[in-house]
Amino acid sequence: MKKIAFIGAGVMGREMIKNFLKNDFEVYFHTRTKEKALDLINLGAIWCDNIVECISNSKAVITMIGFPDDVKEVYLGNEGIIKNAKENSYIIDMTTTDPDLTIKIFNEAQKKGLHFLDAPVSGSDIKAEDASLTIMVGASRSDFEKCYPIFKCIGKTIIHEGPVSFGQHTKMANQIAIAGSISGVCEALYYAKKVGLDENKTLITISSGAAASFQMDNMAPKILDEDYSPGFFVKHFVKDMKIAIKEAEKNKIELPILKKVLDNYKYIEEEGCGNLGIQALYKFYEEDKK
Description:
alpha/beta, 6-stranded parallel sheet, 3-stranded mixed sheet
């Protein structure tokens, strides 16, 4: 499968498309705003006006979009993937979305003779750019193996988590862990500032010891530089945490830390930070809104 149809070219998707091009894939793509994707066209990706046109060119389809409602429309709408994909196509949703919706799409795909995989990713734009994403795949073993060469173009850690929806459940666990980690980074830097420490020295010191983490290495320097540009949007993280809490409640699981972190993020989203990166949580502490 050296042809890919790709729906979505946002912060993550555009870097993934670039890596497919580097691996000599023929990439057909569709996104809402063509003008924002001219660099991809210049690199050789082929723009399509709509989803139906895009997926008509390939039997391997990838989606990387925003919210569950977007996923539902892209897959289950009249002009969507399920009704219009070629029979026996492999359809991979790499969006982080609701596991229940994933199961619904899988069931509809089966009725149409389509292979559906859920494969959310972790690593933000940093790892999307260098093709070292972590990919969590929910699928049959045979579908996973068939699509493994595709995943290898964009990821480094690629795990078959189990049947469809297990990719999404693994991503929920990932987001729960991130919630605590990024909050710890923000609180540590805020503490350092308030007690009069040199924040840069503090970061060098604590990031080389037991407090080391991806968030410490990548988000903390941005916070100190007051760089809140998005590698992963606040609004998308809020969406993910809401899904995780819904799934936890359905399974009678208590997640008190996640609930508190979600409240903090909802506060800054309401303050107009939804389109900033998740490191913007630091603004919650700066305003003394604890």
